[in-house]
Amino acid sequence: MSTKEDQMERRHASSGSPYEATIGFSRAVRLGNHIAVSGTAPIWPDGGIVLDAKAQAKRCLEIALSAVEELGGSVQDVVRTRMFITRADVADEVSEAHGEVFRDVRPAATMVVVAALLDPRWLVEIELDAICS
Known about the structure:
6 strands, six-stranded mixed sheet, single chain
């Protein structure tokens, strides 16, 4: 006997990161109406990094929301964000970038100061969840 979960299609979105196959992860996964987006780093298409926290946060959100859209969701479907920052003094810049995107959506949000991210130039990494109608 099959369950509702068995009948749900599992879809993946890739950001093209060379680590996805090596580590075994996807930028985002959609199962049913839930989209989970992995921690997203501020990497530009050319592989470069900008050392400004607000610009990094905007880039993280651009990548994450692109994955949500690829899987059929939109910014209005985002219900939770998690922001990992490496320095408390960049919280206002990251918050401002988050507010520009989510001012009207107002998802549940968490910001945590962490000791480090994988690349020492990264000041922020963001993950999010969306529930699509």
